[in-house]
Amino acid sequence: MSILTISDLHLALGIDKPMDIFGDGWKNYMERLKENWNLTVSDSDTVVIGGDISWATYLDEVYRDFEYIENLKGKKIILKGNHDYWWESITKLTGYVEKNGFNSISFLHNSAVMVENKAICGTRGWIDKSNDNFKEDDLKIYNREIMRLDMSLCEADKFSPEEKIAFLHYPPVTKDLEINEDYLAVLKKHGVKRCFYGHIHSKASKKAAEGTFDGIDFKLVSADYMGFMPYKLS
């Protein structure tokens, strides 16, 4: 059994939202993702999908995208991205996948999921305070997401895992590509050694902060950056 991850699938089977307008790298992306996924992932593996799953606006529009995910190999753990407007309460989301027989899909929200002896933890995150677009209203959301990351990692303590692995949608970095001290403090508090994130695409990906910072390895796993190939953690 292996753990893999990929973020920002931006599926659009239920609505008309072509992604190739963002560049040639997105041409036939759903076909490429399916082929790469099923060559890389086995039925016993778990894939963490780090947000921006579907362009659907409402939960009743997400069926075909979830059907697509269900038909891919392995178990899938999903966390929220900034474009996942269809996201509702965990009760509604869990009821939706159960009702429709999407048995390989579960959600990460204020929680931790054990995969073998490793704890999958994380949250959506938010834009950094150093961002020029950060407004006063963003501070409440920003602080809440820091709290949710801590909550998720605290939940993992209940299982005494061998390792806690953190997943975020928004990059935990400043506009100067320095690791955000608020996220870093939470990750260090809980002994996290690996953190994966998404959200960044195209030319911006070249400026992603990757590598080891203060003992924690950070890696960008947006789908287009990864060539639509899930990344194997170990």
TrEMBL record:
| Molecular function in Gene Ontology | hydrolase activity
InterPro entries per record: Calcineurin-like_PHP, Metallo-depent_PP-like, Metallophosphoesterase_sf, Pesterase_CT488
What name does UniProt use for this protein? Metallophosphoesterase
One Pfam match: Metallophos
Q: Which residues belong to any copy of the Calcineurin-like phosphoesterase domain? A: 1-202
